[in-house]
What does this fold into?
Amino acid sequence: MGSRFEVVEQGPPIEVFQLMKLFSEDTYQNKVNLSVGAYRDENGKPWVLPVVRKMEKQMAEDNTLLHEYLPVLGLEQFSNASVAMLIGPDNPAIADGRAFGIQTLSGTGSLRVGAEFLNKHLKYTTFYYSSPTWENHHLVFVNSGFTSPRTYRYWDPKTCAIDFDGLIEDLRSAPENSVILLHACAHNPTGIDPTQEQWEKIADVMEERKLFPFFDSAYQGFASGDLDRDAWAVRYFLKRGFELVCAQSYAKNFGLYNERVGNLAIVVKDAKLAPAVKSQLTWVVRGMYSNPPAHGARVVANVLADRQLFDEWRGHIRLMSTRVMQMREALRAELVKLGTPGSWDHIVKQIGLFSYTGLNQRQVEYLIQEYHIYLLSSGRINICGLNQSNVQYVANAIHDAVTKFPAEDDNRAKL
It folds into this structure.
């Protein structure tokens, strides 16, 4: 008798993790990793924020901290601080009990808990996500029970900017009660965000069509260095009177990638509804992972609660965001200096960790094979993978790839 598991087919690799593996195994001296979505310092190394080190040291010396289970919905101090950071500590929704949060397993866990709750208890089945988007959005929502995944236009390859007319047209045609997945800031993968005026028009259409906003906030503070600026869209929707949910992640802005620190923020119209919502979220979490881990949430909660530590942390996110902006400028400058065909202004107009370069798949393959520069097949790069010692090398390689493999549909050639 053969194995019962013979029916299991080999699944496809996850691209970003496959690239990380190939990079780690590559012995080429000048290899460059532009794939993984994590901050790297000027030396290309992971950076543990000093304020995190300081808090972890304090916690290690605190003999009162135990390894007991947290409540199912996590550390309340952490969730309260997270919601306040997202919507503003003076937001009336906090004072009247309409806004609350639950601790989750980073942003991905927050998306999954929120999606399963909306599907199971509000009976929502249709969701829209931008084209393109973070590749895990589709999988998370479909696995949560949503049966009708759809996309709204976002990236215009001809202009390397938002196809705003297409976006609005797609939202106008969305069925009532569709869940619209929106990137709060630093859109992944394009790095292009709507302007405030465009956000207002998006809200107009969503209000008119009775669509439900689900924000994904993975980069608050990390994108621009300003916590308030990066939360503007979420706060504007609340000002307009929307009910909403928002997935928050502390992977990037605290550098707590493997601690899986996340929060699901929920805002309802009546505080009387909050207890029932929390009770059902409790059962969603109970059947999924039972309760979240404590360490990372304690780090974040303690830093956000202490004014001196909070200010120190804000200095860290300003430092990280500034380095990203400097590397955008440096890459564009090198490409311009080389006379690389097309316009590369979109690199500096984008924000956050990623840049949608406009490189096509053949050019990407060439960069990997000939220059050992690892990036996604879509042409998305992690700007943090650049530094002063490799940006010229990367620019020369891009110039070679674009020159050697020009394409009729090469987006930059039309600019």
Observations:
- Residues 13-47+314-414 form a domain with the Aspartate Aminotransferase, domain 1 fold (CATH 3.90.1150.10).
- The first helix runs from residue 15 to 25.
